[in-house]
């Protein structure tokens, strides 16, 4: 993982005697906004959730309304029925507003990047949380959150941190998946019918990458190549946007370490090894 930079002291807030690390976000959210991320998590991390027995999942920074935490519980219980979700928010008023939605397997807690839950979570999801932070702060947040994940061992790869950004209604989304050891992959996901070209996803790159979409950086080269593959796959558009996307992604596999298979490409996704897109120092 990249070298750690300490969070500014101004981001430390008091929370009943326990330091709460982070800063209040805008809190904007919409029902079904994180559906693409949730479905990917269920597919990619479902086996780890089942292996955990009673997995604890954290929806970190769920916002002004609890919809994303409620939906996350429902989606993950389809693959791991004993999943428990803890919604964590740094704004106490948001926690109080969410409490009426608590149910079996779903609770809400006041907190931040310290992740105030007992034990080690099997999953931490942090969607649209780091967008307001400085790029230099990301490594410290990642390191702190990864240290809270369930460790690897006994055939398990350990817990997963999924951190990324999407648009207001969840049509375009890019996220990084990290294990206890650090970043693993970057996933690009979109509603294919709304896509003009793959580089449209650049505006939803997570904070670690969004300022690196410039010539000379790997993520810029990847999106450039993706646009070229998309253009070359134009004849497949007569069979629909899905077939064009799948053909373009297949072309990318010759030069980029795509880690998923056509079953995920059909969903309007492609996942690439982090090392191939990591910023150059």
Plain-language structure description:
- The protein has helices spanning 35-51, 67-76, 92-98, 135-147, 207-210, 218-232, 241-252, 262-265, 274-277, and strands spanning 12-15, 18-21, 56-60, 84-89, 106-110, 123-127, 160-166, 172-179, 182-190, 269-273.
- The protein is an alpha/beta fold.
- The chain has an eight-stranded mixed beta sheet with strand order 5-4-3-6-7-8-9-10. The chain has a two-stranded antiparallel ribbon with strand order 1-2.
- Strand 6 (123-127), helix 4 and strand 7 (160-166) form a beta-alpha-beta unit.
- Helix 1 (35-51) crosses helix 2 and helix 6 (218-232) packs across helix 7.
- It starts with 11 loop residues before the first strand and ends with a helix.
Structural class: alpha/beta
β-sheet strand percentage: 15-25%
Uncertain segments are: 8-16
Please give the largest β-sheet.
8 strands, mixed
Strand runs, count: 10
What percent of the residues sit in helical stretches (DSSP H or I)? Answer: 25-40%
Tally of DSSP helical segments: 9
Radius of gyration: 18 Å
Average pLDDT for all residues: 92
Order of helices and strands: EEHEHEHEEHEEEHHHHEH
First-to-last CA distance:
13 Å
Strand sequence of the main sheet, in spatial order?
Answer: 5-4-3-6-7-8-9-10
Shape: globular
């Amino acid at each position: 993982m990249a070298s750690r930079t300490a969070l500014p002291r101004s981001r430390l807030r008091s929370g009943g005697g326990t330091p709460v690390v982070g800063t209040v976000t805008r809190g904007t959210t919409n029902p079904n906004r994180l559906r693409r991320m949730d479905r990917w998590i269920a597919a990619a991390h479902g086996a780890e959730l089942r292996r955990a027995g009673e997995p604890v999942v954290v929806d970190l920074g769920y916002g002004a309304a609890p919809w994303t935490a409620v939906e996350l519980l429902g989606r993950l219980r389809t693959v791991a029925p004993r999943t428990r979700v803890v919604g964590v928010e740094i704004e106490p008023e948001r926690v109080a507003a969410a409490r009426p939605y608590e149910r079996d397997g779903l609770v809400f807690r006041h907190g931040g990047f310290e992740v105030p839950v007992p034990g080690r979570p099997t999953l931490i999801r942090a969607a649209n949380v780091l967008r307001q932070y400085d790029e230099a702060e990301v490594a410290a947040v990642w390191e702190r959150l990864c240290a809270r994940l369930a460790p690897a061992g006994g055939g398990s790869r350990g817990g997963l941190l999924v951190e990324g950004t999407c648009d207001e209604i969840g049509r375009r989304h890019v996220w990084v998946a990290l294990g206890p050891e650090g970043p693993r992959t970057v996933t690009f996901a979109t509603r294919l019918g709304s896509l003009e070209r793959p580089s449209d996803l650049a505006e939803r790159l997570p904070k670690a990458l969004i300022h690196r979409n410039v010539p000379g950086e790997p993520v810029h080269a990847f999106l450039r190549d993706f646009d070229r593959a998309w253009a070359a796959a134009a004849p497949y558009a007569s069979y629909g946007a899905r077939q064009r996307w799948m053909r373009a992604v297949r072309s990318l596999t010759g030069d980029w370490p795509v880690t998923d298979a056509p079953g995920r490409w059909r969903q309007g996704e492609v996942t690439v090894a982090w090392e191939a897109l990591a910023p150059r120092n």
